[in-house]
## 1
Amino acid sequence: MKHKIALVTGATSGIGRACALTLAKMGYDLIATGRRGERLEELGKELPEGIRFLPLVFDVRDRDQVLALLGNLPSDWAAVDVLINNAGNAHGLGPIQTGQVEDWDAMLDINVKGLLYISKAIIPGMTERNSGHIINIGSIAGKEVYPNGNVYCASKHAVDALTNGMRIDLNPFGIKVMGIHPGLVETEFSLVRFKGDEKRAETIYQGYAPLLAQDIADIVEFALTRPPHVVLADVVVLPTAQASATVIKKNL
């Protein structure tokens, strides 16, 4: 029996990696993308027996590479049933007046344009087949704006808007479109935001129980196992200690 195919971007760590492993355990053949080839190799070794695996090493910001690789998938990989647009990053945390343009470019290029490039390569096949499920991993930052979050929040608001727009435009084709917007999840996110400052990154997750990457993967599994007439369109998920982007109960 032929397995369905899932494509997960940013599968080398955190939420993307957890989603990739969960999808493979569900029986999906897996296309996993990321910038770190060795991480993808490690992921491949953890997949259940019988699951096909296609690792693709590229940066979602590179439009030509995205379209070249995903636009020319082998015929037995071309019919992607599930797309998890997970790749995304935060770069820096500071007020707009002192923000670095390089950080702004990185966030907009990865979080917004990268999502668009991936989607552009995959959606035509879904519309041709009149089926598919797209899950965009957003953030609570796409629902609220918080101090010093300016451009990152803007990029995640764009993800939310694109998700809603996709759902409208793809409605005639029977394609499900979902947005998942997590609050604080303990991943490499803060390490990237604080540019390798491990001590500062660790403080973000102290004094309470943050979400884990697997918590998001569990939501993905639940969404994908709903009957055909049901779509979880928009899910905001927070750790119990978090009430909003800025209200967190810490026991320090």
Note: The domain at 5-237 is CATH 3.40.50.720 (Rossmann fold).
## 2
Amino acid sequence: MRKYVCIAVAVAFMSGLQAAESEYVAPLTAFGAPDLQGFWSIATQTNLERAERFNGQLVISREEASRIEAMVAAGFERSNEPSDPDREAPAAGQNVGGYNTFWMDPGNRLAEVSGEIRTSIIVDPADGRLPYSDQGRANYAAAMQRRQSYDGPEARPLGERCMVGFGSSGGPPKLPVLYNNLTQIVQTEDHVVLMAEMNHDARIVRLNGAHRDPPLYPWLGDSIGYWQGDTLVVETTNFHPQQNLRSSLDHRFYGSSSMRVVERFTRVAEDTILYQFTVEDPENYSQPWSGELPMVDSGETVFEYACHEGNYALPGILAGARVAEVEGLDYAPTDPGLRQ
């Protein structure tokens, strides 16, 4: 006998309904819940927001997707070529690059949901763009500007400080990053653990519980969950105030501490979980916004993420800023890419 708590939710995605109506039946755990356990990858070349070149199209043909994926593969191949030992030194402030391609694993395919190849993770609004209010856009711009401060470690991004993973890899919502895109899911009767490979961020979801009162504001927020049919629904709010800016690759957004994120995890095939989410944040957005992403069993397991051990980057960055101050130099990068 399956033991679920069926609670109505305000938002249901059409593709979620299609998944529920499919012939696939998820396996069950020993305690009767749909089994989501395993290692799941969210790596994809599909961006959070839709690029203008797609003219508002959410779905593209396989032929067009193949062309895009081939271009991405060619770019990675070029970037993995040996460096010219006789090249000139870079100009001051020029982007000198970071990891070579060997260390990168952002995914080599566009996201496919319900047989459709997607041009953006965002599915609502229909234009695939974040619906910032004027205040929200100002908050985002101010947060990006604060990242240019080198006065102390507190001003540096959380991933740089090894507090949580870069971007929003641990969620919610969960979004891809440059590498370490796996999530391990572990279930018990009363809890679900979502452990992101990036920084080993473990989000513990209390099933059939309530948000803490008075609220706490932990990293990754305060998550509660319940089963709605074969779908695990997770509701999260009360985020740490330093985690309001999520920025990695082309997946960037700003959220307040009172932002509310509703996630839905539905196993739709032996090797796929359909991941859906809705973000509600009136402080920054003119309407809720929603996204969809497949979580795929890649056959891999998580690697150790040893962020602090032997990490001299942060003291080196701050020491360089102090030297620049003494020498009266402008140490803000001139390359816009470095500012992100």
Note: Residues 14-40+132-339 form one domain.
## 3
Amino acid sequence: MIERKIYSVSQINRYIRGLFEMDVILNSIWVRGEISNLKVHSSGHIYFTLKDSSAAISAVMFASYAELMPYELENGMDVIVCGYVSLYEKSGKYQIYVQIAEPAGAGELSIAFEQLKRKLQEEGLFDEDFKRPITKHPKAVAVITSPTGAAVRDIINILSRRAPEVKIIVCPALVQGEGAADSIVSALKDVNESKIADTIILGRGGGSMEDLWPFNEEKVARAVFSSEIPVISAVGHETDFTITDFVADLRAPTPSAAAELSAADSVEEKRNILNISNRLNSIIDYKIKSEKEKINSVFGIRALRRLEERTVNLEILNDKYAMQLKNGIDALIKNSFANYTLLSEKLELLSPLNVLKRGYAAVFDVNGNAVTAPDSIKENDLVRIKFYTGDVWAEIKKRDYNNGEKKENL
């Protein structure tokens, strides 16, 4: 009688695993399928099912490979994965161990862009409430870009021509390749800490999506959002869009457009004032000439010849007053332009955002109405308290009145 050979479960699973590992095809294989049942473990390992219309296979991607991907895997995503098929001896279940996962449709960078855009939008980083106005008459503009690119030359040329009184500060930064994102974040931090400018222009010239990718990184987006100085994003061409464009206080289609948006055209403003002055002078000259003609017509009447001497004196006096009037108007125009600039600066100082920046806060009810007195809110009402850097929600627990007559504990 032939003696039976009995195997343990572990031996069987180990033997089958060896068969998988000796198979040339299963040792390095590309598989396409749809992701489902995706779970991300606290360790960073990703477990999911890869399926098609009629079959499914378990899959795992270890954290060391997952960290290398520029985007996150999601349920329903159509992917092409590369890895090896083996048996997990403990459960006796075979699965594919994924080392590379590529989107079957859109590219990796496109998916990463849309995922980060959706994430930051849900957090409110794109909200118009957080956008700060760009001052029209800055004293200094900081330009964060490559110091050798065409973008910085365009910005300097246009801004110098439009507003020669504005100081331009070039803050060099890497805008492409490895280390560019950290370089941009560092430059933004330096400008904010030194407070050397009223406006920041952040950008570069055009390029591929890979070239512009530093402006799509989360660390750059959060640095732009956290900047206390208003930021104009000027990345690439008019058709290029980056995450920085959505987070910045203002998006310019090109670096040249950013230069135009960063400051009002003071040369054009002065030209307009000069034109107004010239038109006023022309009107005055016309009126003087008209009055002279009327006087001369009177002199043509023989019966009034005796008034000639008095009229000459009046003409001399009229010329004197006309010159005084013209000088007065010139001085008024000059003072008006100076007052215009001063009032513009004062108006900006009186901005509600500047009030909030000094430590004050504004209170609004759930409908967005301003709360100006304790009587307009009730017990357990929720209110939104707006600070300069963001909002908080609070629940009313007590109301006090300045005259001390009304108090209500809630």
Note: The chain has a mean pLDDT of 84.
## 4
Amino acid sequence: MKVLLIGSGGREHALAWGLAQSPKLSKLYIAPGNAGTAQLGENVSISAENLSELAQFAKREQIDLTVVGPEAPIVAGIRDLFEREDLKIIAPTQKASFLEGSKVQAKAFMHKHSIPTARHASFDNFEQALTFARTMAPPIVIKADGLAAGKGVAIAQTHTEAEQILRDFMIAKKFGAASQRVVVEEFLVGKEFSLFVASDGVSWKLLGTAQDYKRLRDGDQGPNTGGMGSISPVPWLTEKMLDETVQKIVAPTFAALRKENLSYEGILYFGLIWTDNGPSVLEYNVRFGDPETQVLVPRFDFDLLELYLALAERRLEKFEANLKPVSAVCVVLASGGYPEHYEKGFVIEGLEALTPSSLYFPSPSEGRGERGVRVRGAGGEGHILIFHAGTALKDGQMVTSGGRVLNIIGLGTSVSEARERAYAALKQISFPKMHYRTDIAA
């Protein structure tokens, strides 16, 4: 099968790695991809947001299945365009993408269908938003309505800070049209986690849980980022808690979509928080998360391409989405200055010590194995994966080309073992102004 994977980040490298292990795959194209995905397939220099050119490419190359990584093309309607061209694609429709594409509409949907979420109100008027924010006890959560690359959520510790954030969002238009409307909501206290669900429009199936670390610095300090690390499974989440989440949130969400006559096909990612009152929705996302995918895919005990085919052919009900009994920890290596201004083009040193050569390490479940990389000098043969995010090849050298540069994933029988392996591996890598958190999964 010929597969086109759309996107260029760490999530897409992880998906490419998963797809590349399928015996059904004959050719993998990644548009636009990065230096890491180039080792698994052929990068195609088409932007993830150039929908017409992507459709033309899929038609010209007779692509059997297209998989979409990032949210922007989904919200822009790539599913609808590909269907009109009679091209098979895994992504929700533009109509269903409001769950991520508009925080305002998503909140209205939750409120209408009694899906637990924070007390909130939506505004397109700065003065009204400010007046409402002043009625709330800080901290106060302020969210841009539209897509903002995972950075459109701010937490104000004071009313003065809330006013400044609202000015930045609504008057200075920090995120352009995306922040002209905002949601102002109460700050929920609890533990955050992510739950990933696959749906073929008829049935749905859980794919696993993860927890990501949004803040830039240790101790959950600093600005929100796209994610500085992740862990899977969520160590503190019990089966009973998961069952309650499914009963109160997941099942009601899909029932509500049916009531709204919306067929949801693809991945639905629930951003959740466990409070004293049980689970509550922070946000919906209409695709796999980043960097959660990087810790989920290595745990999949099934063929990823087969999952996508089951979605495309509406036979998910019989698909077995089992997980390996391993823990995965991801640490993100970022450029200095991220998530604001940062420089690109720095040479990345040390990756040659972590080459994904011939090391084959056993899968705890069936012994089929997964390709990994050897960590030299890290105490034995480590179970390590390196997923590229913001990298490029320049004059034969690997260089930085984005805010989040590399994802270092450690796998182990326990969280502590996985964590130890990830941090041992990243100590061998360096580039100028490299930044990472030291407390992921601590």
Note: The chain has a mean pLDDT of 92.
